Amino acid sequence: MWFHEEWVEQTIIKAPEEFDRAFGRWRELYQTAMAQLMESTQLLIKSTDRAIQDEANRAIREANFQRNLLLNQQTSREESDFYPYRYLASEGFLPGYNFPRLPVRAYVPKDEGEYLSRPRFLAISEYGPHNIIYHEGAKYEVRSLITPPGGLEQRLSQVKICGTCGFFHDGMVDTCENCKTTLDASNSEIMSVLEMPNVRTHRRERITCDEEERVRYRYQIATHYRFAPAPGGKQRVEKALVLDEGETPLVKLLYAPSASLYRVNNGWKRSSSKGFLLNFKTGYWEKSASDKEENHNDHEVKDIRLVRLIVRDTQNILLLYPQVPEWREDPSLLVSLQYALQRGMEMNYQVEESELASEIIGEGEHQAILIWEAAEGGVGILKRLMEDRDAMARIAREALQRCHFDPESQKDLEPEKCPCACYECLLSYSNQFHHDLLDRHGAKDALYKLSKSVVQPMVEGRSYEEHYEWLRSLTDSRSELERKFVDHLYKTKRRLPDDAQKMLEGIYSIPDFFYDPYTCIFCDGSVHDTPEQREKDRKIRNQLKNNGYRVIVIRYDKDMEEQISRYPDVFGEAKS
Asked: Are strands 156-162 and 168-169 parallel, antiparallel or unpaired?
């Protein structure tokens, strides 16, 4: 466990040193900005070349901007990366502070200049390279990046993407951490990604037909994910199976709280190559060879590299893996099912359309419907779907109603008004590029099967029944109470323990059952009534509590249901 007897004392002793260390990055960024300011000022004084003077003036403005940002001047303190609480939290000095990620801003040269803010997942496309922004009757083109403190180099990294399941690896690995696929050139991609900073725009009186056409084709935006770490080197995920009336798997669910979600801008959809050309010296996006307009900065020293833009956030995500091959193999059915289930969740949990987002990700048997809570701070509905045995059935029934079908008879209630899909069922502004695939009739049978389904949790890849049998095999052959306890949980469809007879590290104690990450269950038979055993139990269990474990005791001489129902946060509610 992370907590021990000397933890508080050591934390207090190390606090001054850690506080000083936390400001190391700030000092380095401030020194870099001041060095740029001094060097550019000297260059401006010495040079008589107009182009060099213009570049020096730009560098001076940028250095001043960085210095003001570091000093929280001319900016809202709470909206700055260097607002003290936000900065210290990002450096790990203030654990537990949960600040939302800052939006991306675009500088618009209107009058004295102003900044337009967009959420990061929207800015990755709206503020993409050479995109056109329409603001108060004028056109502005995104031409360059505002170099952040520390330079663009600090935000550049190499990552590896698994093409089989869409998992994001922030290092070079040979095997996917999620689907265990051996990664090679055919099923993975190594890319240089730049975490998106704020951008600078230039006013355009007119744009060419080529530019209008390029904007119409939009960008290639891909979504990827990475699970949060859990104790013991594991990943923080929960799994469950959605079973039909014959207990045949329909969908496998994987819920990942506080997962890292990434959106990558891979370039224009019509482009034959992926990525954008960026001049790291100036922050300007380079034009492609097909553009006739001459680059305004051709005279400058260039460090041009091919990069892709990336933004990230922390979100609760849910992956739905269809277990019926026909559902995966029909693109129209899968996309229709994706939006139908999203509409069903919105109806069942009474949330706005903007609070949930979804996307198809992966391929083959690892293809999944990815759903995440797009609302700031999340809405908590994905976790409830994993815990509630009948949640998927209710969502599917709501989806059938939204698609104009009677949930019981499957009768079409709007045969003439809605031939395939309409804005009252599946269509929306956000999924307009999938309108040609959406068909409520194609998803009807799948939704009807799901409307009769139940959700059963999985542990370590085992189904509910398999895990129950596994736990029963680990019980003490001399303890009827242990078997009675597990049997009662199974019969009432409650959450089963994650482990049995688990040896705890650093403490001489073996709980009868264990719930990750810290709940110990002891089943006390009559042998625990002797004074000697009581005293021994008291000492061991106090030691467990002092080390951060939770201790629950199940007694042989008390009603089983009464004891279990006291802890719904551990065992869940009874199901009929």
From this structure: antiparallel
397/386 Cα distance (integer angstroms): 17
Nearest to 496 by CA among 518, 470, 522, 477: 470
Torsions phi, psi of 575, nearest 5? -120, 145
Cis peptide before 231 (omega within 30 of 0): no
Structure tokens given for 112? 């004295």
Query: What is the overall mean pLDDT for the chain?
Result: 87
d(CA 508, CA 361): 46
pLDDT at residue 536, as a whole number: 94
Are 80 and 89 spatial neighbours (Cβ–Cβ below 8 Å)?
Answer: no
> Which amino acid appears at position 363 of this protein?
E
The structure tokens listed for 552 are 């629950």
Query: 3-state DSSP call for residue 402?
Result: helix
The residues, ordered by sequence, that sit 6+ positions from 538 with a Cβ below 8 Å of its Cβ are: none
Given a cut of 60, whether residue 442 has pLDDT beyond it is yes
Cis ω before 415 (30° cut-off from 0): no
What is the spatial distance between Cα 556 and Cα 536, in angstroms, rounded to a whole number? 18
Quick: pLDDT tens for 199-239: 989 888 776 666 666 665 689 999 999 998 876 677 889 99
**Side chain identity at 570, as an amino acid letter?**
V
* Amino acid present at 102: L
Domain ranges of the chain: 17-229+264-314, 319-457, 463-571
Most confident of 167-171, 294-298, 460-464: 167-171
pLDDT tops 50 at residue 295? no
Does domain 463-571 sit in CATH 3.40.960?
yes
Residue 131 near residue 142, CB atoms below 8 Å = yes
CA angle (526, 529, 535) in 5-degree steps: 140
The token duo for 423 is: 């804005």
